[in-house]
Amino acid sequence: MKGVARGRVKRVMARVTSLTTSLRVQFTILVTALFTGLAATIIGVASYMDVQEAEILALEKASNVADTIARLAVFHLRDQSLAIFETELEKLQAHKPAIAIQVRDYRTNLLIDGDPTTPKTTGVVTALSKSRRVGETHKNLLALSSSVIKLSIPVISDDKTIGAVHVFHTHSGWSRFIGPITIRNAAIAAFILILGVPITLLFGRRILDPIQKLTQTAYRVSEGDLEAPFPVTRNDEIGILARAYQDMVGTIHGNMERINQLAYMDPVTGLQNRTRFRERVGSVLEDDSGMNGAILFIDLDRFKKVNDTFGHDVGDALLVTIAERLKTVVQEITTIVGAVSAAKQTALITDDTPNTAQIARLGGDEFALLIPGHCSTAQPTEFAERIIAELTEPVDVEGNSVIVGASVGIAVYPDDGTDTSSLLKNADIAMYEAKSKGGNKFCFFDHRLDRQIKRRAAIESELRRAVVNNELTVFYQPKVDCRTWKTIGVEALVRWIHPVRGLVGPDEFIGIAEESGLINQIGELLLKEVCQQAIRWAISIRPLEVSVNISMAQLHRPDFADRTLKIIEESGVPHEILEFEVTESMAMTEADLIEKMITPLRAQGIRFAIDDFGTGYSSLAQLTKLPFDVFKIDRSFIDGVMKDHNSRVIVETILAMAQSLNYKTVAEGVETWEQAEFLTKNGCTLAQGYYFAKPMPAHKFEAWLAENEEPTVRQLIDKAEGF
């Protein structure tokens, strides 16, 4: 109860404080105080002046009586007719009872009194008569008190003072008239207050009301209502202030909208950005507790190619087109599955409520779609299929028809996560799984994928350490001339000698190196070591051709050609013994980039080979345009050449085509004498595989080469029998 009472007291005090701080209340108090002070001043000043006027009238009356008596006294004092004079004074005093009269004769020093009750012509001298002689100053002597006026004037005859007249005029004092005067003046002041205060307050209201409205508007603006009206119709200073304030708030409103757009909207596509999308997901997760929903993570498959080929302006225009298509898909699918009412379909993309599907651009070529929990369980699949179908439709880019495509990862809540970060992370993981399967696919998140991601992260961390600690080395696999069976070169292959796990194959870490960007550093280290080894062999044994694999990540570096030539020049290795291998899939998907990057190197005498040839669906038109020197036939065809008719026909066709186009050919994965013999009969240039030798360190290769410098057919057959 005490707490409640204290709360009420606080509220009352707060109310009182707010009232006392109100400009209207302060103005009212000020006006009332001013008028009250004015009234008090009027009462005091007017009363004082009325008292002064009453005293002046009494003094004039006494002075008139004194002057009259002084004129009479001249004759009587000069003739010494004092008895007659006293009788006249008694009559005069009887006629004016408020006045007492005394006349002093200086020659006889007698006092003539107008009071009939006193002795005649007495010699008694009053206190006043004992004062200095009036004739000494020739001035009236005046004493004034609240109840009596004492006036003395000289009696002069022949320029001599022969006596003095003393007049005592009694009155009731101020108390007799101060009351009526005060009441009269108070009435006048009250009239002024009653009339003046309302008029002043009414006049002040014309000033205070707009200020109060302006203050209320300011409060509304401070609470976020930037549409609050301002009293701008006035033409005085308040109107000017209101208009200036309105303009300022309008500017602030515009700036806030711009800031909101910068903070929450993607400037290119107009979609929500990552920050806003995360907020929406958080709101939906709170509202959809216990309900199923999904997040789709969308990544364009070939957007970088458009950016690199046509520039970022065209890339931005493409993103706008993609965003519009995604909006259309969301609206169409939502209509089909009936996830929201028809009334909400028009606001599907821009509606701020958390119960509608939301599309956002997270950055780069990544988009995300939120399907709230009120959607059906089949909707994520329908969305993903519809999005992939829509984004595989050609897009016109500067007159060129471009097919982008998309990989989609799906994370379902609450199964795959109950917070925004985990859902986005898991959808991203599922998207990468779809991309790893060739793109233009969708995948649902699986916790197995999460374990793979963590394992890949651990491998990446260890791989970074391996680069620093020189745990990576180069193995060499011989390339044999199919006509002479003489080793004419090697393929350099990177291997990882793990301190705990031992030898780690390239399939386990090369992909991770490419994704993390480590492949650029690894590639340069590999090239430096290969060039140095090639120089040593050229000096100690003989020049051997050396081929090195190049990844797409390396070719995407604008300075790839310059850095590569610099390493080669610093090593001093002859250009003609170097060969770089690029996979057919890379060559076909990035044909323009490949041509741009390898042309400067080919101009220096360095050869280029298409690795895994036959798996990338190359067209003859593309082959004639690409600047390559060697076809390297994929091992999958070599493996089936002796048991599968189709494989045999494909290999024969590739070899015949290469001969007609004047390309060298290399068959990889040769494991039997029959395969080697088949390749020789069909004109293959070089062969490599386990039939000849496995990849090995440089020192073991040197030993192997010494034993197999000039192998005979019998040796090869014997080797085949013992293989």
Sequence-ordered SSE layout with sheet pairings:
Layout (H helix, E strand, L loop, with lengths): L1 H19 L2 H57 L2 H14 L3 E7 L4 E4 L27 E4 L3 E10 L2 E11 L3 H49 L14 H28 L9 H14 L5 E8 L2 H8 L1 H26 L4 H4 L12 E6 L2 E6 L7 H13 L3 E3 L2 E3 L3 E8 L6 H17 L5 E3 L2 H22 L3 E10 L5 E12 L3 E3 L1 H11 L1 H23 L4 E5 L2 H4 L4 H12 L6 E6 H6 L1 H12 L4 E7 L6 H6 L4 E4 L1 H5 L5 H16 L3 E5 L4 H9 L4 E3 L9 H10 L5 H10 L1
Parallel strand pairs: 11-12, 14-16, 16-17, 17-18, 18-19, 19-20, 20-21
Antiparallel strand pairs: 1-2, 1-5, 3-4, 4-5, 6-8, 6-11, 7-8, 9-10, 13-14, 13-21, 14-15
Helix pairs in contact: 2-3, 2-4, 4-5, 7-8, 8-10, 12-13, 13-14, 14-16, 16-18
In short:
The protein is an alpha/beta fold.
Using only C-alpha atoms, the radius of gyration works out to: 59 Å
Tertiary shape: rod-shaped
- The helix-and-strand class reads alpha/beta
| Helix coverage percent | 40-55%
SS elements, strand count: 21
Q: State which percent range the strand residues make up.
A: 15-25%
What summary fits the major beta sheet? 8 strands, mixed, barrel
Average pLDDT number: 77
Strand order of the largest sheet: 13-14-16-17-18-19-20-21
What is the terminal separation in angstroms?
99 Å
Number of helical segments with 4 or more residues: 24
Which regions have little confidence, pLDDT < 50, spanning 5+ residues? 122-139, 337-351
Question: Any key phrases for this structure?
Answer:
single chain; 723 residues; alpha/beta; five-stranded antiparallel beta sheet; 24 helices
